[in-house]
Amino acid sequence: MYRKGKIILPVLIFLIVISLAFAAASFYLYQKEHAQNIQLQEQVTELNNRQRVTEEKLGESKKLASELELKLQESEAKVDSLNKEMAQAKSELADTSNKLERFGADLEQQKSLREDLENRLKTAQEEGRQAKEQIQIIQKQKAELEDKIKNMESGSAGVELGKVVVAGEPVVIDNTARGKAKAVNEKISAAAAKAEKTDKKTQVASPAILEGKVMIVNKEFNFAVINLGSKDKVELGQEFRVTRDGKYIGDLKVEKVHESMSAAGFAAELKDSIKENDKVTQKAK
């Protein structure tokens, strides 16, 4: 019995030690698991907080994206409007450039016409001056002839004399003097008529027939723009001859009239023949 007690006691001690060790290990594992649970809870809480912050940021991002999309649409609308305005401005600029070119060509044409008129005026003035010189010469000859007639009248008593009117006064001369006086009077009348004609030509030195040139040729719609307009008395339906270096090209018919230029149509077969700077001349009605 005593021996059994000795055997059982160590076994109990061993079992107690093992139980204590197991309890200690269990407690350690419990503490460790508890700490891990606390750590996991903290991580879950942190993750929840992060998720909430992320959701808030996502909502703000969506809101910002909507605002940016609206601004983008407004920007696209503004860009479209600016593109239209730019296209209109380019069109107006091109139209203005074309008008400036046409005005420049018209100005050059006007300068050329002015020079031509000035040359004609100078020619008319020169003709008038020459006519006046001829009149002065004839008047001098007339005065000399009158002096001769007076001398002949005073020195030829009893000779049958005729009468001729010189400068409004009746003068008695013989038949030979009468013929000379008549010739002088005729020369004076012719010179006076020429001087009057020259004076009229000097006062009105404008061409009877309009002349100009082709500025632009539109082959697509078969019309040309000429540098003659309403200020030149151009009318709708008026026809012009087109020539180049004196060679006849074809005819134009005015379809639209502006102040300093006109649009005139031509036959389709002339679209490759008519060129810029070709001469146009008004056709006689």
Beta-sheet strand percentage? 15-25%
Q: What value does the average pLDDT take?
A: 78
Secondary structure category: alpha+beta
Which sequence of strands runs across the widest sheet?
Answer: 3-4-7-6-5-8
Low-confidence stretches: 155-175, 198-206
Order of helices and strands: HEEHEEEEEE
Give the proportion of residues in helices. 55-70%
The beta-strand count equals 8
Total count of helical runs of at least 4 residues: 2
Q: Please state the overall shape, judged from the principal axes of the Cα atoms.
A: rod-shaped
Work out the radius of gyration.
60 Å
Termini separation comes to 166 Å
Largest sheet report: 6 strands, antiparallel, barrel
Structure description:
With 285 residues, the chain is an alpha+beta fold. Among the domains are: 125-203; 211-282, Thrombin, subunit H (Beta Barrel). Helices cover 64% and strands 16% of the residues. The chain contains two helices and eight strands; from the N terminus they run H-E-E-H-E-E-E-E-E-E. It has helices spanning 2-155, 175-203, and strands at 162-166, 169-173, 211-218, 223-226, 239-244, 247-257, 262-265, 279-282. Strands 3-4-7-6-5-8 form a six-stranded antiparallel barrel. A hairpin with a 4-residue loop joins strand 6 (247-257) and strand 7. Helix 1 (2-155) packs antiparallel against helix 2 (175-203). The chain is rod-shaped. Mean pLDDT is 78; it is low at 155-175 and 198-206.
